[in-house]
Amino acid sequence: MAAARDMEAVSPLDGRYAARLGGLKHLAGEGALAGYRVLVECRYLEKLCATPGIGARRLTAAEKALLAKLPRLSAADAQRIAAIEETGVPGIPATRHDVKAVEYFIKEKLRRTSLKDLSELVHFALTSEDVNNIAYALMLRDCLALELLPALRELLRSLDGLAVKHAATPLLARTHGQPAVPTTFGKEFRVFHARLARQVAQLGKGKLCAKLNGASGNYNAHLAAYPAVNWEKFAREFVEGFPGLEFNPFTTQIEPHDSYAELFDAQRRANTVLLAFCQDMWRYISAGLVAQKAVAGEVGSSTMPQKVNPIHFENAEGNLGLANALLGFFSAKLPVSRLQRDLSDSTVARNFGAAMGHSLAAYRSVLTGLARVSVDEAACRAELRAHPEIIAEGVQTILRRERAAGAYELLSKFTRGREVTAEGFAAFITGLDVKPAVRAELEKLSPLTYTGLAAKLAARK
Question: Do 108 and 177 have their domain in common?
Fold first, then answer.
């Protein structure tokens, strides 16, 4: 039995599309963000204790294990942090500040353990953005690595399989929407595969920048407390101790998010490739060149019982558009901050999960759509036979090779704006004043085989 849908969800990501998001909600939700913040604070405390010159005692193996376990928040832990922020709890007044609530939560936990003597080193000399920028970077890293990139790579495998399967399946290409020259379905699938693969590769190798340098990026409090410590080395080691993160030594209170914009732009480009693919698939389905499987129990229309709509490609197109609107806004907004800091980025960053969610929902829709379609090769061949004029390019090019005067103009006069039949084209070729070998060459041209290197390109990995 299907899980109950949340009928009070404001976003369809939490309602209608929730089942498509897999583990994303555990990586990009409010509880996940709190967990990443706790992780940063616990790792920071551990590094403080391991740094000579700070005067903190060394941690035992059991204490390190405790700090490693603490970020794995239970639902009750996440609610506890929210309560500390919003209303306060016995012994802790309301903070009205999310990162401070995390600090107090950790201190509360540590005071019940052997680490109670170190509780005041939690969040020592940090500004909230030191914690937040690393937490969000880790969130984005994991959303990509664990959910989005696997889905994109599954799409690449599907497109590659279709490219190989239909490498030689002829297809009437249309430029400006008009019959052009033949291609193959496999070649068109390969184009989208290659485009998407380029963007996925960039997404997979990108690193997110992060900082740990205090309220204006100068280690003021750090240096005041412990002037003998090499704080820049400390910060670099700390940030780059998280795989996928790169230390940025030059920031204000906030890391400027240029690397975030690079990531969002790369994801937006990948989404745009898929959006274009969905629109092309929609057109192929509409033209009857791609057939859809009717699924028992599904309704295609509330009034037209015969319909099998391309809903998965349409749904993906809508979700990709929504995701790209958010990603584009992120890229334009986040690198801009007034002077050393303003807070207008805070609510924006809280919507990272929405952009990731709409993207992932779209990827899953495309995969579902591809699993339910098949190329109608007979329909493709029939459409090509209906447009014999498309070999005019080949005919005039061979004639030009033979230095026939006015070859292009001759073919244009014969074909442009006129209905041409296969018999008429054959008669036209018969009437040409050319060598018999050239005539035989022209007579071999066919809309079904005039596909150039399309099949070889389609089969190329």
Answer: no
Instruction: Select from 139, 126, 114 the least CA-distant residue to 60.
Output: 114
Q: Residue 389 is inside which H or E element, if any?
A: none
Q: Which domain holds residue 203?
A: 138-296+306-376
Long-range contact pairs involving 396-405 (C-beta distance under 8 Å, separation at least 24): 398/438, 398/441, 398/442, 399/432, 399/434, 402/434, 402/435, 402/438, 404/434
pTM, two decimal places: 0.92
248 Cβ contact partners less than 8 Å away, ≥ 6 residues apart? 209, 210, 211, 255, 256, 259
Q: Which of 114, 286, 301, 374 is catalytic?
A: 301
DSSP class per residue in 4-34: PP-TT-SSTTTTTTGGGSGGGHHHHSHHHHH
Overall number of domains in the chain: 3
Per-residue pLDDT of 180-236, as tens digits, reads 999 999 999 999 999 999 999 999 999 999 999 999 999 999 999 999 999 999 999
Cα distances from 18 to residues 112, 143, 229, 406, 431, in angstroms, run: 38, 15, 48, 63, 66
Q: What is the C-alpha radius of gyration for the chain, rounded to an integer number of angstroms? A: 30
In 3-state terms, what secondary structure has residue 304? Answer: coil
- Active-site residue flag, 176: yes
Same domain, 110 and 145: no
- Dump pLDDT digits (tens) for 303-332: 444 546 788 999 999 999 999 999 999 999
Per the annotation, the verdict on 359 as an active-site residue is: no
- Based on the domain organization, do 316 and 427 belong to the same domain? no
